[in-house]
Design brief:
single chain, TIM Barrel, eight-stranded parallel β-sheet, 23 helices, binds zinc ion
Length: 476
């Protein structure tokens, strides 16, 4: 046997061994699902390498407790103070929902009339009960809170907080750390520095703000997470100035291509100005000017059938956010099954809480996954769901009985369709394959009992959603 054929035989042998191992692990995963307690399955999925979160709104990703901690720590918020409107002279039920817990910076507070100012309290001075209520006001944690509470109340309540660039950046950092801890390798979040203002309310020039964010991301505590971060620039689709804002978004992304890798359109589609066909001419004009700007666009986050996803593909999107009603548009579904070029970013918990699919057993995700439409799992506005990416995987595995190869496919899809630079994407994919192989080695014990025993060392971090939905919480 020549050296060459010996080497070929060895490669073939080791490949056979590797595939045998993968097949064994798949079988073992089926046993694990059957035998594990909910807490053990959750720990397994927390430790799982998860690829990327491609559908993530930086403004909606922040856990209330984390935001509270940043807003009350001058060392992390640039020396600002935050006040929230909580003591009312009128009857509480006469107070508009957007007014209660509206939270403002010191310079805004200082400009209020004395009568209104009397209704505000510094965040640090809230009683423990008020503090808990404040946190609850920034998430969908109670029955009956659905898309109206989300779109109309929560966003206005917090709109003043993010203008503090220190807070916005520290919120991002807190997310980077939490996501890295649950096995995420890549975060492509919808983040910008627009409307940043200093503590006196003076606008911060955009390039100054970008440089500030870059410096923070280069700090050792962020670098040590190993998480790769890229941004999308998002335009609100129903804005009366959406055309102009879209042009500005293209110019901005073009000038910051190392960090900003795509453009998105977000905001409620049910609004009369939110429909995608409205943007066909502007996108074509911008494409005539700018090469290679990737588009991920929210579409099909709707209750009934329409042509929004088809129209959004015509806009040039290669990723669709949500795609809930794709199932009601057979021609476009066929197109995506056959082309396999466009990924649908699935957001299970979001779709449940905003009542697009209140019963997740009826979610079209398994149909897309199992008929060849590339999909991945994402967190959307996880701060407002009080959840994490593990919750999405746990939901998918327990509701749709995902196989091991499907789980790995979801992670690979999220990286294959990432908008990061090609060399970054290739490195992420190679690292992901290595991480999955290492995970299979770690948890591929001879018996399922041994695997379950190894899971005792995993210490998942859970939030209110896991507690409320499955009764899952873990000792720190
Ligand atoms: Zn979204």
């Amino acid at each position: 046997m020549s050296l060459h054929s010996l080497r070929s035989a060895l490669v073939a042998f080791s490949l056979a061994l590797a595939s045998l191992t993968a097949a064994d692990f798949s079988a073992q995963f089926e046993q694990l699902k059957a035998r594990a307690t909910p807490a053990q399955l959750y720990a397994f999925l927390y430790a799982l390498p998860k690829g990327g979160d491609l559908h993530n709104h930086a403004g909606g990703a922040n856990l209330a407790e984390s935001t509270f901690a940043i807003c009350t720590d001058p060392a992390r918020n640039g020396g600002d103070t935050f006040y929230t409107r909580v003591h009312f002279t009128g009857q509480p039920d006469a107070v508009a929902a957007t007014v209660r817990f509206r939270t403002v910076r010191r310079h805004v507070y200082a400009a209020l009339s004395p009568a209104v100012r009397a209704e505000y309290v510094a965040l640090a001075d809230l009683t423990p009960d008020e503090r808990a209520e404040w946190c609850n006001a920034f998430r969908l944690d109670a029955a009956g809170e659905g898309r109206f509470e989300f779109f109309q109340n929560i966003w206005p309540r917090q709109s003043g907080i993010g203008r503090n660039l220190h807070v916005r950046t520290e919120q991002l950092v807190a997310n980077i750390k939490a996501f890295a801890a649950e096995g995420l390798a890549y975060l492509e979040t919808q983040f910008d520095v627009d409307d940043s203002a200093d503590n006196s309310g003076q606008p911060i020039p955009r390039e100054t703000a970008v440089a500030f964010v870059r410096r923070r991301l280069a700090q050792p505590d962020v670098v040590a997470t190993g998480l790769v971060v890229r941004f999308q620039y998002t335009v609100l689709r129903f804005s009366p100035r959406a055309d102009t804002e879209l042009a500005a978004a293209y110019a901005f992304v073009d000038a910051h291509r190392d960090l900003w890798v795509g453009v998105n359109l977000a905001g409620i589609e049910e609004n009369g100005f939110g429909y995608p066909a409205r943007f066909l001419v502007p996108f074509r004009q911008l494409r005539a000017r700018y090469p290679g700007i990737a588009l991920s666009i929210h579409a099909g986050e709707m209750d009934g059938p329409d042509r929004h996803i088809r129209d959004t593909l015509l806009l040039g999107a290669t990723r669709i956010g949500h795609g809930v009603n794709l199932i009601q548009d057979p021609d476009t579904l066929l197109l995506l099954q056959q082309s396999q070029r466009v990924l649908v970013e699935i957001n299970l918990i979001s779709n449940r809480l905003l009542e697009y699919t209140p019963d997740l057993a009826k979610h079209p995700f398994p149909e897309y996954l199992r008929t060849g439409v590339p999909v991945c799992l994402n967190t959307d506005d996880r701060g407002m769901w009080d959840s994490n990416l593990t919750d999405e995987y746990y939901t998918a595995v327990t509701t749709f009985h995902l196989s091991w190869s499907e789980i790995v496919q979801l992670g690979r899809n999220s990286l294959t369709h990432a908008f990061a630079q090609p060399e970054v994407r290739a490195r992420l994919l190679a690292d992901y394959d290595r991480a999955v192989a290492a995970f299979e080695t770690t948890y591929g014990a001879a018996t399922v009992e041994a695997t379950l025993a190894r899971l005792a060392a995993v210490k998942p971090v859970t939030y209110g959603y896991a507690q409320r939905t499955w009764g899952l919480s873990f000792e720190p």
